[in-house]
Structure formats: C-alpha cells, structure tokens
Amino acid sequence: MPKPPDYDVFVNWDKRLAREAPFYRAVFDEVDARTVADVGAGSARMSLMFASWGLTVYAIDPDPGMLEQARKNAAEAGIDLPIYAGAFGDVADVVPGQVDAIVCSGNALPHVGGLPELKRAFADFAEVVRPGGALVLHLLNHQRLLDQRIRTVPPVVRETAEGTLVFLRVLDYDDPAGIGFDFLTLRRSPDGAWDVANARRSVHTALPSYVLVDELDHAGFTRIALFGSHDRKPFEAEKDESVIVLAYRR
C-alpha cells in the first residue's frame, strides 16, 4: 500500500467511513460493544471513528510510519486514542484484557505472513475477544484474484497541492509465498512532468474465503457469515472485489 501520509490521500476516508459506519454500528450494538481492538489500524481513521462513538478503542499496527501518522491524526481530531505497535499474533500482549469486538479491515490481514501465521493470528484473536464477541475481517477477494488471475486493481487518481497523484496496483502470481503486489504512485507536477513518487512491492498471503472460514472455525469462531459489501449483500466469490467476514467467539 502507499506509504503514510500518502495512504490518507489514496483512501477517500469521508466516503469510506460514511459507507461502512452503519455496518459497524449494527455489529457493535448487537454485541453491546464497549471495547474494540482495531488490528492493522494503519493511520487509525477507522479507530478514530469508533472512538468518536464513545467506545474504548485500541489501535494496533506494526508499521512505524503508520503509527506516526495515526498519532498525528488522533492529535488533529483531539481524541486520546491508545495506539500500540504490534503485529498479527501480538494483540493479546498489547490489549489490557479481553475486548467486545476485533476489527481487521483495509486489506491488512493478507500481510499476515503465511498460513501458520494466520493460524497464530486467529488464535490470538480468539484469546482477545470475549465469548460472544464479534470479529470483522475486510480484505480483497483473493478467490476471485486467484481464479481469474487479475493483474490490476482499478487505479485511484487524486488531485493535491503538489500535483496529480495516480495510485496503481499491479498483481502477479509467480511467488510461491502468495500474491505479489507492486504499489506504484505516479505524480504529475503542475508543469506537466511525471515521476514515480513511490514504488513498493509486497507479497500477500493468499486467503481465499474458504481458508478464512475453515481457520476461523478451528480457532473457535462460529456464526461465520460472508458479505460482498457493507450493506450485507451476500458474497459472490467470482464477482465481488472484496469480502467482509463477520464471526463470533464461541
């Protein structure tokens, strides 16, 4: 993904939060949530929305740049948000006690680092969320990517004071460790010249929906439901760009 602070330019947060907020409110109301762990919180925009609802939120991310941006965003919002450095599998070591819900959104989960680490992450989640509590995962639909060998995700274009930014994601399937993502940010200056503002490569663990369901069941989660959007449209593996997984701790 783009480096911070470009990440907050890449994502249209006003539009995204408005679209996703009703889903999360309904989940939190269902389990009477008071405490939430946002794992892979990035720049903490989602965490700050939850905190603005009066919830106690723990924002957790392993990336120092994202943590710095999260602290800036929290300061600008005037919200005292607990922000912690932590990778998948570290949540129980970071969060003081159990929580009512865990959220892992924005395609963070594929950074888990292989199937053994996914098992470790889900076991960690199961330890942290209380019995009856909710877990929400939101990531790209890897089943569609793998089946159709999709090479690009639609580009994102943003106009900034420094010029036009174009965010590109190019995929390949040559790495046995997973799906290769090349993240490119192209910048056109006001004089019309183009340059590559950022180029990063990341290999994401392949997580088709059936793997997620199986591993969540083994970790102790139940009532596992898959959606193709935050309005709870039933998930269509061959069509939907993303998958939202909602599960509850046994």
Could you characterize what this model shows?
- The chain is built from eight helices and eleven strands.
- With 250 residues, the chain is an alpha/beta fold.
- It has two domains: 6-141 and 206-249, Rossmann fold (3-Layer(aba) Sandwich), CATH 3.40.50.150; 144-204.
- The longest helix has 18 residues, at 13-30.
- 32% of the residues lie in helices and 35% in strands.
- The model has no long low-confidence stretch (mean pLDDT 97).
- The strands form two sheets. A seven-stranded mixed β-sheet has the order 3-2-1-4-5-11-10, sandwiched between helices. A four-stranded antiparallel β-sheet has the order 6-7-8-9, with no helix packed on it.
- It starts with 5 loop residues before the first helix and ends with a strand.
Helix fraction, binned, reads: 25-40%
Strand segment tally = 11
Largest sheet: 7 strands, mixed
Please state roughly what percent of the residues sit in beta strands, choosing from under 5%, 5-15%, 15-25%, 25-35%, 35-45% or over 45%: 25-35%
The largest sheet has its strands arranged as: 3-2-1-4-5-11-10
Number of helices: 8
Tell me the series of helices and strands, N- to C-terminal.
Answer: HHEHEHEHEHEHEEEEHEE
Overall pLDDT metric: 97
Q: In angstroms, what separates the terminal alpha carbons? A: 34 Å
Rg value: 18 Å
**Known CATH architecture of the largest domain:** 3-Layer(aba) Sandwich
Q: How many structurally independent domains?
A: 2
CATH superfamily annotation of the largest domain: Vaccinia Virus protein VP39
- Structural class, by secondary structure, is alpha/beta
Q: What overall geometry do the principal axes of the alpha carbons give?
A: globular
CATH fold group of the largest domain: Rossmann fold
Low-confidence stretches: none
In the CATH hierarchy, what is the class of the largest domain?
Alpha Beta
